[in-house]
Amino acid sequence: MKDTKQKLSNLTIFLHWTTGLTIITLAVIGVYMSENEAFELYPIHKSIGVLIFALIIIRVYWRFVNGWLQPVTQYKAIEHNLAKTIHWVLIIATVVMPISGFIMSGAGGYGVSVFGLEIIAAQFDPIAKEAIPHNAQLAGFMAQTHEIAGWTIIVAIVLHITGAIKHHFIDKDNTLRRMLGKN
Ligand code: HEM
Ligand code: HEM
């Protein structure tokens, strides 16, 4: 079933909340671990990031097959355009984050594993006790991309949630209820 103005499909609702809440969790872990050098969290962050990529791809595919959501009622053009722009930023950053993280870790020689299952082997210098990059330039570029896209998605999520709260409590419309499957 496709999304309609009145009701969203179960797939849209499922994919929005699974990927959305996982991305919020990854962003919180990502900022915390890199600011505090909490290296024990890195494997968890990477494992969840790789796994959620599968759902992200299905989500993006579904969004293009299904089309964007229709607003529940008529809004001012500026409000509608702002929401649309933020949806685009969110969906693009959602794809950029796992890809840049994967390449940054792989090319940087740190390796990528999913809960212990090795996907790209780490390459460590046992004497200097540091990673030997396969491609330092690529790793550096991807690290910058991951950081910039990371902060962009955090700002976009804050604006997005502010919008959802505004619709629910100020406009008192069905926008949030529709995404919760409660209409
Ligand atoms: C949707 C998926 C992901 C989200 C939302 C996310 C988010 C973030 C954020 C916000 C940061 C902090 C900003 C920064 O320092 O770069 C971060 C750091 C990091 N992420 Fe991700 N990430 C995701 C997937 C991945 C994946 C798949 C990998 C690797 C396989 C990865 C590896 C890392 C690493 C190594 C850091 C620390 C970088 C540093 O120490 O400077 N991330 N992530
Ligand atoms: C507590 C957190 C969140 C709330 C309350 C929330 C709420 C909503 C609501 C009510 C809509 C429907 C908008 C409409 O009808 O036009 C929506 C759509 C959307 N949200 Fe969220 N959202 C949250 C987190 C996220 C996160 C973290 C992402 C990042 C990936 C995200 C990405 C999107 C996108 C891309 C859409 C457009 C429809 C779709 O592709 O599913 N949301 N959100």
Automatic annotation (TrEMBL):
InterPro entries: Cyt_b561_bac/Ni-Hgenase, Cytochrome_b561_oxidase, Di-haem_cyt_TM. It is found in: Cell membrane. The chain crosses the membrane at residues 12-32, 44-65, 86-107, 148-169. GO terms for molecular function: electron transfer activity; heme binding; metal ion binding. GO terms for biological process: respiratory electron transport chain. Belongs to the cytochrome b561 family. This is Cytochrome b561. It comes from endosymbiont of Bathymodiolus septemdierum str. Myojin knoll. The gene is cybB.
